[in-house]
Structure formats: C-alpha cells, structure tokens
Amino acid sequence: MQNVISRRKKTVREIDVRGKRVLVRADFNVPLDEDGAIADDTRIRASLPTIRYLCERDARVILCSHLGRPKGVVEERLRLVLVANRLSVLLDQPVVALRDCIGPEVESAVAAMNGGDVVLLENLRFHPEEKKDDPAFAERLARLAEIYVNDAFGASHRAHASVVGVPEHLPAVAGLLLEKEIGTFARILEDPERPFAAVIGGAKVSDKLEVLDNIISRVDTLIIGGGMAATFLASRGYGAGASYVETDRLDAVRRLEERATERGVRLLLPGDVVVAERLEAGVPTRVVPAAEIPDGRIIADIGPGAADEFSRELAGSRTVVWNGPMGVFEIPEFAEGTRRVAAALANLRGTTVIGGGSTTDAVVRFGLADQMTHVSTGGGAALTMLAGKPLPGVTALDDAGTP
Ligand code: ADP
Ligand code: MG
C-alpha cells in the first residue's frame, strides 16, 4: 500500500546536517486577520522542532513557504516578514526575512550565513513558477542549499516546485512534523487499535467520496453527519426536505452501504436532526426525526439524540479519525452536534486524529485541540492520506536506507 512506502522515507535524523546549508520547505500558510496580522500561529509552532533540531547541529537553516494566494506577483500584505518576526520570538533568535526567494541577492545572503543562523525566503508564490513546478525555478531554489527537508505536510499534496522540483536536485528528507503527520495517518489506516471508527461530515458527499471509499474498507464503524447526511438519508428512501441531495451520488452512496453490509461495518446516520428554513444565524430551528424532515426545511446539524448515540458509539472505540463537521458549526445555532462529537473525542481513552481545515477550526474553537492525539496541520493533505493516495511531496523524498 502507498502509505507503507511513505513510512520508509528518510528523515532529517538519518542524514548528517552538521554545518550544512539546509533548505526547509515549511508550511507557514497561516490565517491572517482583517488587519493583516497572524490570526493563528499553530503552523509556525508546529515547525519549531525541525528548525531547533537543525540549529542545534549548527546547520544554516534556509526556510521557505507560501502564504495565501498571491497569483504569481508580489502582494505586500503576503510578505513573509510577518512570519519571520513571529518565528524569531518563538525561537528566541534572529530570523532574517529576505526580500525574494531566488536570485543573486538571496544567494549572497545565504553565502554569508553562519552555522545556527536562520533565514526565511520570501513567499514562494510571488513567482508563478512555483505552482507550475518550473524546473529552472526549482533548480535556482536548490542551488541555495546542500540538503532539502520537507516539513510542509499541508503543502505536500501539491506538485509545486518547492515540494517536488527541488528534491530532484538535492538529498531530500522528511522533517519531524512531516514524519509525525505521515506516521500518524499511516498507523491508523494500516494498523489501528480496534474498534476503529471514522466520523465523516462536511457539506457534500462529492467532496469526500474517495475518503469514504477508502475508509469503509478499514473501519469497524462509520458515522455520517453534516450536509452529506441528506444524500445518505435520501439513498435509504427518506425525504430530506429542502436539504441539498446530491442525486448524482445516490448510486455511490448505495454502493458504500452495500460494502458496509458486506464487511460488517456499522454505518450510522443521524436519527434526528436540527432543521431550519435557511442556514443563517437567528432563524428558528427545530429538532425532528431524520425520517420526518418537513417540507422546505434544511438539515443544519445532527440532533441531540444523534449526538448521544454517536458519543456512546465513540466511547467504545480505541481509534477515531474525524473529518468534516456535523453541522454548520460556524453559526452558533448549528454548532452543538459538532461540539458534542469534539467533546466525545476529547474524553476518549484511545487515539484521536483530526484532519481537515474546518474540522480543525472547530476543535480549536471549542478549546479541545490539545486533548486530541493529533490535530493535523494539513487540510487537503490529510484528505489525500485518508483517501489512501500518495502525497507527491512525500513520494519525491529519498527512501530510507539509501546512502
Ligand atoms: P473539512 O475542511 O474539515 O474537510 P469540509 O470542508 O468537508 O470539512 O466541510 C466543512 C463545511 O461543511 C463547513 O463550512 C460547514 O458549515 C459545512 N456543513 C456542515 N454541515 C452542513 C450542513 N448540514 N449543511 C450545509 N453545510 C454543512
Ligand atoms: Mg474544508
């Protein structure tokens, strides 16, 4: 299986970095608030172990990342000097922000570095070549260093120059964060402690079909919530009111149900739901049985009965992976189901893994992130792993055991 391969990649601990110039692809794609300040520095903090590991060995640490979606041109508000300043505080040492990521000025700045120094290259996506995986751009980045470290789990599902191009030119190894992310997903997918449950939610089945397809062959229990529950309910012959039913996915859902039956997987749908006329704050809400959704009403959250049932089921699990909120948790009226599932996971004595941008946001918002075994720093990359597909950025790294 693909995930087994990813586990055998060489890591930064298996290569001599002492005194070397090391280019670290980090994921500093942090959310910014309206004033352009860093709203959440989780991703920066997650990169610290690898950076510290390198500094302690007198490596010259050249960090690079993208931030936001600058479309191949310089956007002042997306300069990485913001990140360099925060990093400098967290590391308690200077972090020099360079004004570009390639070119003669960058090369001379890097040449002047001493062992243990840290510089941060400018936003990679100021150059259109980054997203195009342009070979010449990758070569110019690679020229800065002697070793390449990928620690950007959140970018590793993208075949961009800094992710897959640079490792063609240098010894290429996984950083400590990447190793932890890959190792966690690989372990729960390949050799989970059982019972193993997956909770899958979010807006649509079509966003999660590959994940559902892969996960159903691995879990003991599959719990479905979120907007996608409407399509599952419709496939079982229930009316879903005015909820969005993905009619082109009814067959796919039916096949999932068949596979669950064949494999003896318990597939749980919410027995009751919170419905509303519109998905807006302040609208009147009602709890109804899932089999009796009134005309004109939309499923906005799982109901309290479903939250009880899901919590009971989860309490008996030894491994749980969760992707996709149970309701429109961004609106307080529809957040309770997601909060209850988060609480059930927080109380669980077993392995709990959270993947997906919105799911992570929810868990952080409820203040429960540090009660989970692992909260992934990657959205798309986590989904790619849950779908059982290889990450290009991991495939590009050197295999363990090679010189
Ligand atoms: P993740 O980013 O964790 O992978 P998704 O992107 O799949 O999660 O889903 C997140 C979105 O799903 C949220 O914005 C949430 O509002 C939405 N959602 C959850 N339940 C419903 C629902 N019943 N109807 C519509 N949207 C929903
Ligand atoms: Mg999402």
UniProtKB/TrEMBL annotation:
Domain of life: Archaea
Keywords: ATP-binding, Cytoplasm, Glycolysis, Kinase, Nucleotide-binding, Transferase
Source organism of this protein record: Methanoculleus oceani
Residues that hold ATP according to the record: 208, 330
GO CC annotation terms, alphabetical: cytoplasm
A single GO BP: glycolytic process
Reaction(s) the record says it catalyses: (2R)-3-phosphoglycerate + ATP = (2R)-3-phospho-glyceroyl phosphate + ADP
EC number: 2.7.2.3
Protein name, per record: Phosphoglycerate kinase
Protein's cellular compartments: Cytoplasm
Binding site residues for substrate: 27-29, 43, 66-69, 125, 158
PANTHER family noted in UniProt: PHOSPHOGLYCERATE KINASE, PHOSPHOGLYCERATE KINASE 1, CHLOROPLASTIC-RELATED
Presence of the UniProt keyword Manganese in the record: no
